[in-house]
Design a protein that fits this description.
Number of helices: 12
Structural class: alpha+beta
Distance between the termini: 42 Å
Family: Belongs to the class-II aminoacyl-tRNA synthetase family. Phe-tRNA synthetase alpha subunit type 1 subfamily.
CATH class of the largest domain: Alpha Beta
Keywords: Aminoacyl-tRNA synthetase, ATP-binding, Cytoplasm, Ligase, Magnesium, Metal-binding, Nucleotide-binding, Protein biosynthesis
Strand order of the largest sheet: 1-5-6-10-9-8-7
Number of domains: 2
Cofactor: Mg(2+)
Bound molecules: zinc ion
Helix content: 25-40%
Subcellular location: Cytoplasm
Protein name: Phenylalanine--tRNA ligase alpha subunit
Number of strands: 10
Order of helices and strands: HHHHHHEEHEEHEEHEEEHEHH
Length: about 350
């Protein structure tokens, strides 16, 4: 019934009258003794008692709408103006537009990007379908490296040399190919691994990698840059520690931990009672990588780092199941209403 009333209203709004006869035809059709308004009002007898009051109000409003429209049409036949001019009430409030929310990964990515932008890093992007050279070869990943294993990487059947990038280091490769130092970029983007989907692993996730190459870039620069980042991201009280690690594209390499935000370092289940949680990998760019792009390692040095956006998001919002990010469950997503 409500739908029908709306339809009638639209019909009435669309009704045009340039002559008195046309306006009269409108009156007979809608407001006459056998008119539509009367017929609709007769429906009240079929409405349950407890809804009669609410429906009565709707009917009254419908009748007033028809009468007002008739007045407008009558008027327009006198002064010869098209009736539609008078029928638009610009003082009415507009139809509300539902405002969505940003995805938590977008919120966190934007925060990370904005922190590094303030340090002078530019944003670089590249293709998600990559060739073997940009994804592996150029990054000093030898042929027999486990990351090249078919288990981990999605290759493309028709073009065995093409693959879905396994990290955004491929974007670093493309930047080093196209630019000369000084280079200072961050590379946010989606990456793919052939993993079984679980709470802790997914076949795609998001990374932000960073690369800074110039003369006299040292490990102290790396540490201070990343320390500034975590302080901006998690607060001034956060502590960091570096653990020696191995990556083919950096030498020396280090994993960076931050003090556990939940227990403050005293030990809890999130930090597995160590007081520290892992946040990113980093290191000084391997001379071999620089040589691959004709950048002289005797003159230039650089550092690189990479982090998972999901990981930072997990620490910030305590989201422990990776699958939540891509299930499109609005009950999950709505919790981020109002977040910039
Ligand atoms: Zn803890």
């Amino acid at each position: 019934m409500m739908q029908q009333i709306d339809n009638y209203k639209q019909e009435m709004t669309a009704f045009e009258a340039t002559t008195a006869e046309a306006a009269e035809a409108f009156r007979i059709k809608y407001l006459g003794t056998k008119g539509i308004v009367k017929a609709v009002m007769g429906e009240i007898k079929n409405v349950p008692n407890d809804q009669k009051k609410a429906f009565g109000q709707i009917l009254n409003e419908f009748k007033q709408f028809a009468e007002a429209r008739y007045e407008v049409l009558k008027e327009s036949t006198v002064n010869g103006q098209p009736s539609t001019v008078n029928s638009i009430d610009i003082s009415l409030p507009g139809t509300p537009v539902a405002i969505g929310t940003r995805h938590p990964l977008s919120i966190v990515r934007n925060q990370i990007v904005s922190i590094f932008k303030r340090l002078g890093f530019a944003v670089a992007e590249g293709p998600e379908i990559e060739d073997d050279w940009h994804n592996f070869g150029a990054m000093n990943l030898p042929e027999d490296h486990p990351a090249r294993d078919m288990q981990d990487t999605f290759y493309i059947n028709q073009h065995p040399a093409w693959l879905l990038r396994t990290h955004t280091s491929s974007v670093q490769a493309r930047v080093m190919e196209a630019q000369r130092p000084p280079i200072r970029v961050i590379c946010p983007g989606r990456v793919y691994r052939n993993e079984t989907i679980s709470a802790r692993a997914h076949c795609f996730f998001h990374q932000i990698e960073g690369l800074y190459i110039d003369e006299n870039v040292s490990f102290a620069d790396l540490k201070q840059t990343l320390y500034f980042f975590v302080q901006e991201m998690f607060g001034k009280e956060v502590k960091v520690r570096f653990r020696p690690s191995y990556f083919p594209f950096t030498e020396p390499s280090a994993e960076m931990d931050i003090s556990c935000l939940i227990c403050g370092g005293s030990g809890c289940t999130v930090c597995k009672h160590t007081g520290w949680v892992e946040i990113l990998g980093s290191g000084m760019v391997h001379p071999k990588v620089l040589q691959n792009f004709d950048i002289d390692p005797e003159k230039y040095t650089g550092f690189a780092f990479g982090m998972g956006v999901e990981r930072v998001c997990q620490l910030k919002y305590r989201i422990n199941d990776l699958r939540l990010y891509s299930q499109n469950d609005v009950r999950f997503l709505r919790q981020f209403t109002g977040a910039v």
